[in-house]
Amino acid sequence: MNIPAHFDAKNIEDKWYSYWMENNYFHSEPDHRTPYTIVIPPPNVTGVLHMGHMLNNTIQDVLIRRARLKGFNACWVPGTDHASIATEAKVVAKLKEQGIDKNDLSREEFLKHAWEWTDKYGGVILEQLKKLGASCDWERTKFTMDPDMSAAVIESFVDLYNKGLIYRGFRMVNWDPEARTTVSDEEVIFEEQQGNLYYINYQIEGTSESLTVATTRPETIFGDTAICINPADERFTHLRGKRAIVPIAGRSIPIIEDEYVDLEFGTGCLKVTPAHDMNDKVLGEKHNLEIIDILNEDATLNSYALHYNGKDRFVVRKEIAKELEELGVLAKTESHINKVGTSERTKSVIEPRLSEQWFLKMEELVKPAIKAVLEDDEIKLHPAKFENTYRHWLTNIRDWNISRQLWWGQQIPAYYYGDGKEQFVVARSSEEALEMVQKLDGFDDFKAENLRQDKDALDTWFSSWLWPMSVFDGIVNPDNEEFKYYYPTNDLVTGPDILFFWVARMIIAGYEYTGEKPFTNVYLTGLVRDKQRRKMSKSLGNSPDPLDLIEKFGADGVRVGLLLSASAGNDIMFDEELCNQGKAFSNKIWNAFRLIKGWEVSDEITQPESSRVGIEWYQAKMNQTLVEIEDHFEKYRISDALMSIYKLVWDDFCSWFLEIIKPAYQQPIDRKTFDAAIALMEDNLKLLHPFMPFLTEEIWHLIQDRTSEEALIISTWPDANEFNSKIISDFENTMEVISAIRTIRKEKNIAFKDSIVLKVMNNTNSDADFDSVIIKLGNISEYNYISEKEEGALTFRVQANEYFIPISGAINVEEEIAKLSEELKYTQGFLISVQKKLSNERFVAGAPQNVLDIERKKEADALSKIATIEQSLANLR
After folding, report:
1. How would you class 201 by CB atoms within 10 Å of its CB: exposed for 0-12, middle for 13-18, buried for 19 or more?
2. Please, what are the averages of pLDDT over each run of 10 residues along the chain (877 residues)?
3. Which residues pair with 226 in a beta bridge?
4. Coil, strand or helix: which one is 429?
5. How many angstroms separate the CA atoms of 474 and 517, rounded?
6. Of 49, 251, 399, 467, whose CB has the highest number of CB atoms within 10 Å?
7. CA distance 364 to 399
8. Do 794 and 831 belong to one domain?
């Protein structure tokens, strides 16, 4: 067989992926086997592959391929998320480039553009995952806006509303002025920003006196409806019951008292703007204050801001500060570092805003999810350290704002039939809504054209929280065969940044709709960072293109490189050298296979004792490693599992086993040993396959012609059989002996082709099982057991055993004496210089203790070395 000299990943990856697809190995249907199911964390439909996806999906592929090999009915469901805010922003930007304003379009017209965008870019990331080797069941690919998936979302909304868990409320929300929608608390990122603190004087009505208020947002003065002081603050007792005049606006507002105001903070006077601050809203409700909303949807100021109407909030801030200064009411301005909330999606500065939204009550819904993870251990987080984060989020949970002011997404199924927003029904369709309205008193003649559906869309997470159920149609059709078979799923692999957004909510939904957990284990990966510990991002330019890495190092090389340093929950300091290490491992395995297949095989030769014992040792070592691997997988230490396999293959198989069984130059190998080597190679490939699918499948088929029923991807994971631990420990001693012999050969310039004599004092009564291996790998001509020390010999110890290599015939005595004499002379000179320092009283008195300790150690080391050299010279003479 003509096997290429070098492993060429590029030429085999497409070949084997196509082969797997053509033979439908990734597809799963319910049958008699135990299912193993994972659902992909659906990436944004408009997204492209990044390093986080690479890590996450490589781990999932390892788990699913291993499950397939272990005989489970493995099902990995792929799909994408419609990502309301991100996708709508991209579509709006595209329309803007074409000179089209979204506000000039009807909802139907805009959605047509959104679907065109999705159809064009929606499948990119899934196609990229195939380059990685992801063995998803592509026939089951789901999109959160598919008709059946949308039906599940609507069904969920209707059900929760009918249970009294969904309601409409006028609340303070986080407003994203760029996306023009509300976002959840979890989607707000707080960043420290340099700003100003403005001290503004408010005149006390009817007097010439004023009080001073500090604010970071002077534009909000147009929304002020009170000034608040602490009733215990003696500085302001004379202001009780009085009123103040809002600068520029000229409005009179009450001065109220509340213990909420911190006596020690700022000026002690607090401006209250109920429409634009969460805490101010609470004060406003408590004191029945007027609510004045000064902002438009895009964060420009409205008519309440008088002559600033229509201007951007940040432009206005500077202009208002200037006007306040001109009016003589700006007492001072100070630099101030403030934590500012920004939108995770658009990076726009968030504005607190009062808005009518739809909410889901969470207080009761969350209880089973808390119990499952923190009490009953039904669901395990890996690593467990994230339980504290989970506990904090769920025990402090607030009602979930599930409505978004967007068009891309599932439209809220609330239908209005009156003049305002007080009369509505919640229904699965407009037809069902019409029937419901017509059954109401006085509405039997109500017409469909008068029915108005709520304009808002549902939060994207309200779709994806149903994902493990909805992908199997478990919400609309919970009694279907597939849902009963595949649900609950087994493992979930995702990032800790969406532990609350997605993981916790899926757990909540799972218990609400099925009474069961949605999955058993949650493997939380770390973030991929660069060598400087910075999170990888396009804006920093520190994130390599994953497809470029695959092109350069091969998919298997990249997978290994990522996983070798990817312990659960810990961030990865990514370095391309890791991928190079993975590529080198691929080449090592390839060359090991080429070596074996390059041997001529003879049926006539008897198996050497060294080969017999070498095979026995490696089989034991593999079984020991299998036990380790199974333990690592059980504890979701995927990186550790790979490292165990890596060491087994690189160190034990390639570096030791193949050397033990390798025939002499241009000599054949016996059939028994060759067949055993191939069988062990095949077991190695099975262990490696989940991590390195392309390379292993290629070698598997090069070993022998195989049918599609015999492909590696559907072969059998090796069983961890009992193993002889003694043979493993004995061989560890053997490795030390061989390494010591090799060291002496190197130090004494004894070529390997020159055989040597080895004598041993067997003080530990060690078995002679590996003597044949020592003789072969050490090129020993005579190997004798002795009872007394050998004089005039090179010696070393392993455990309590002493080994001797007689000098006669092993080395050139004259050359060795000359070499040792030169080394002795140098060391004696070095010792003199050190002792001179230590005999210098001024040096000893003035030097720090650590410096003295170093010099004394140098002296001791030199004396020891001189004694060793002198002994060696005595043995030679």
Report:
1. middle
2. 84 96 98 98 88 92 98 97 89 92 92 92 90 97 97 98 95 88 83 91 94 93 95 91 95 94 86 92 93 93 95 94 95 90 86 92 97 96 94 93 94 92 93 95 91 95 97 97 98 93 97 97 88 69 85 96 78 85 96 96 96 97 96 94 97 97 94 98 98 98 96 95 91 95 88 89 88 95 91 86 83 77 90 90 86 90 86 73
3. 272
4. coil
5. 13
6. 467
7. 10
8. no
- The token pair at 676 is 């055993």
Got the DSSP string for 16-40? Answer: HHHHHHHTTTT-----SSPEEEEE-
Q: Where are the alpha helices (DSSP H) in 635-715?
A: 638-647, 658-661, 671-688, 693-703
Query: Helix 51-69 and helix 546-553: axis angle, to 10°?
Result: 60
Structural domain harbouring 275: 181-351
- Residue 360 covered by a domain: no
Q: Would you call the peptide bond into 30 cis, given omega within 30 degrees of 0 as the criterion?
A: no
Q: Are 488 and 346 in contact (CB under 8 A)?
A: no
Q: What is the rounded radius of gyration, in angstroms, for the C-alpha atoms of the chain?
A: 38
Residue 819 · residue 830 · CB < 8 Å: no
- CA of 683: how far to CAs of 88, 707, 875, in Å? 50, 18, 50
Q: What is the DSSP string of 825-860?
A: HHHHHHHHHHHHHHH-HHHHHHS-HHHHHHHHHHHH
CA distance 204 to 206: 6
Strand 166-176 versus strand 181-183 pairing type: antiparallel
Continuous segment of H or E residues that includes residue 204: strand 188-204
**Are residue 777 and residue 837 in the same domain, yes or no?**
no
Same domain, 845 and 765: no
CA dihedral 301, 306, 310, 314 (to 10 degrees): -50
Do the Cβ atoms of 60 and 76 come closer than 8 Å?
A: yes
Residues 593 and 406 sit within 8 Å (Cβ to Cβ)? no
790 and 846 together in one domain:
no
Q: Is residue 377 part of a domain?
A: no
User: Is residue 142 in some structural domain?
Assistant: no
Residue 240 has a CB neighbour count (10 Å cut-off) of 11
